[in-house]
Every structure is written in structure tokens, then in C-alpha cells.
């Protein structure tokens, strides 16, 4: 990439996020208009109509109980590209959503798939930087919610084991039920990454992590994590030459 292109990308990254149309709710107020996150003051700026006049208001993060923001028009298509193995082509679109929807509901889901796209492309450092840019604004995103499991994979790829362990502990102790399931499943990934792609490692990952999620986390909130755990179980059973059990797990995963 030439210097001019690099400068252009840097300038693009430095531009502020766009205001996004939505509704902001506090205990005392509900207003709709153009919403934008203010990093410096940790608050939302809202511009709304009062008659024919544009009115501006600021809502501290601590006061906001709900944000209703429509899904970005391109979101589903970009996600499908990542899921179908064409994540590289989705990176630009997902990057734009992460930037423009900073702290506006859709930044973390888009961030998750952007991180996954970078990981699939072998760009673990970019995946880490993407997740970190979101976590800087909301530290809980490192251990709870959609972004967290993808962030953990980036940490694992980069060998940032202490950071990863801290996240998994927080997910188990401070996160919700789904986060706990994701953290347990991640421990299976860590076992295989640490001990190697060996039969013993897969047996340990199954008994200590994947099977526990598949069999014990049956509540609706854990549906996605349970499905993924079953797929991981299937992959480990394949490695152990247990084709019938692997197929059984895949069938169960598809039925969820």
C-alpha cells in the first residue's frame, strides 16, 4: 500500500462517527432523533425536533436505560458473507458499522463478525485492535455479550494468555448465563491450543468443557453457545475416530 493510500485510510479512521436515528430512553424521558456517542464525556448527544426547531440534549451513559436503533441496512448481508467464508469482502462494510454505530447497539454485533473476518484472514492483530477499540468504550464487552468470544479467540491467537484468563474469570463470575457458557467452551479451545491437536487434548476438552456446555446449559439464553459447543464436540469426536458420536452431535446442533 502506498503512502497516499495509508494517509487516506488514517484520515478516514480519524473522522467522527455519524449520528444515527433512534430512540433513547431514561427513567424520566423518552426521545427520538439523531443519536451520537460522545467518547470524551461518556454521554449520548441527541438532536430532535420540537415543532420546527432542532433541539439538542445530552444524556450521560449512566442515565440511559435503553437505546432503540434500527439494524444497519447492510448488516445481514455482511454477516452472511463472514459465515460463508467470504469475510475479507465484508471487512470494509463491517468496519464502517463499528465506527458509525459506536456505543449504539449494533457496534458490538458488527465488531464480533469483523473480528471473526480478520481471524479467518489470519490477521489476529487487526482482530485484537478492532475488539479493543470497542472495549475501550465499554469494558464489559471484554467478558459479556456478542463481541467477547471473538475477542477471546484473538487473545488466544496472539498468546495473550493472562488477558484471556482474566476475561474468562470475569465472564464466569460477573457475566450472565450465556457468557458463562461461552467462557467454559473457550476453556476447551485453550486446552487444545495449549496441549496440541492430540487425542488426549480433545478428550480433556470434551470432558472439561464442550460436553458440559452441550449437556448442562440447556436454558434458552445459552442456545447459540450450546449449538457451537455441540459442533466443537463433533469435531473432537472426529479427531478421536468416533464418527457416529460426531454425527449425532451435529444432528443435535442442527435441531436447535
Give an overview in words.
This protein is α+β, with helices and mostly antiparallel strands and 256 residues long. It folds into 3 domains: 17-64; 71-162, Serine Threonine Protein Phosphatase 5, Tetratricopeptide repeat (Alpha Horseshoe), CATH 1.25.40; 176-256. It is built from 11 helices and 5 strands; from the N terminus they run H-E-E-E-E-E-H-H-H-H-H-H-H-H-H-H. The chain has helices spanning 3-14, 75-83, 87-100, 107-120, 124-135, 147-157, 161-174, 177-195, 199-216, 223-239, 243-255, and strands spanning 20-26, 30-38, 43-50, 53-60, 64-69. A 5-stranded antiparallel β-sheet has the order 4-3-2-1-5, with no helix packed on it. Strand 1 (20-26) and strand 2 (30-38) form a beta hairpin. The radius of gyration is 21 Å and the shape is elongated. The chain starts with a helix and ends with a helix. Mean pLDDT is 92; it is low at 1-15.
Amino acid at each position: 500500500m502506498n503512502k497516499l493510500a495509508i494517509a487516506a485510510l488514517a484520515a478516514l479512521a480519524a473522522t467522527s462517527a455519524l449520528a444515527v436515528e433512534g430512540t433513547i430512553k431514561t427513567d424520566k424521558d423518552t426521545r427520538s432523533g439523531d443519536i451520537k456517542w460522545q467518547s470524551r464525556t461518556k454521554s449520548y448527544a441527541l438532536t430532535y425536533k420540537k415543532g420546527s426547531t432542532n433541539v439538542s440534549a445530552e444524556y450521560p451513559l449512566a442515565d440511559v436505560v435503553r437505546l432503540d436503533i434500527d439494524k444497519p441496512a447492510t448488516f445481514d448481508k455482511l454477516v452472511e458473507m463472514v459465515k460463508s467464508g467470504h469475510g475479507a469482502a465484508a471487512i470494509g462494510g463491517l468496519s464502517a458499522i463499528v465506527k458509525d454505530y459506536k456505543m449504539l447497539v449494533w457496534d458490538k454485533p458488527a465488531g464480533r463478525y469483523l473480528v471473526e473476518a480478520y481471524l479467518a484472514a489470519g490477521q489476529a492483530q487487526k482482530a485484537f485492535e478492532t475488539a479493543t477499540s470497542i472495549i475501550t468504550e465499554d469494558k464489559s464487552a471484554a467478558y459479556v455479550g456478542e463481541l467477547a468470544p471473538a475477542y477471546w479467540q484473538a487473545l488466544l491467537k496472539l498468546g495473550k494468555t493472562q488477558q484471556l484468563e482474566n476475561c474468562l474469570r470475569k465472564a464466569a463470575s460477573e457475566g450472565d448465563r450465556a457468557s458463562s457458557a461461552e467462557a467454559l467452551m473457550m476453556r476447551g479451545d485453550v486446552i487444545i491450543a495449549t496441549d496440541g491437536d492430540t487425542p488426549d487434548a480433545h478428550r480433556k476438552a470434551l470432558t472439561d468443557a464442550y460436553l458440559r456446555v452441550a449437556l448442562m446449559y440447556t436454558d434458552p439464553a445459552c442456545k447459540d453457545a450450546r449449538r457451537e459447543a455441540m459442533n466443537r464436540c463433533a469435531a473432537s469426536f472426529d479427531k478421536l475416530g468416533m464418527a457416529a458420536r460426531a454425527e449425532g452431535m451435529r444432528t443435535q446442533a442442527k435441531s436447535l
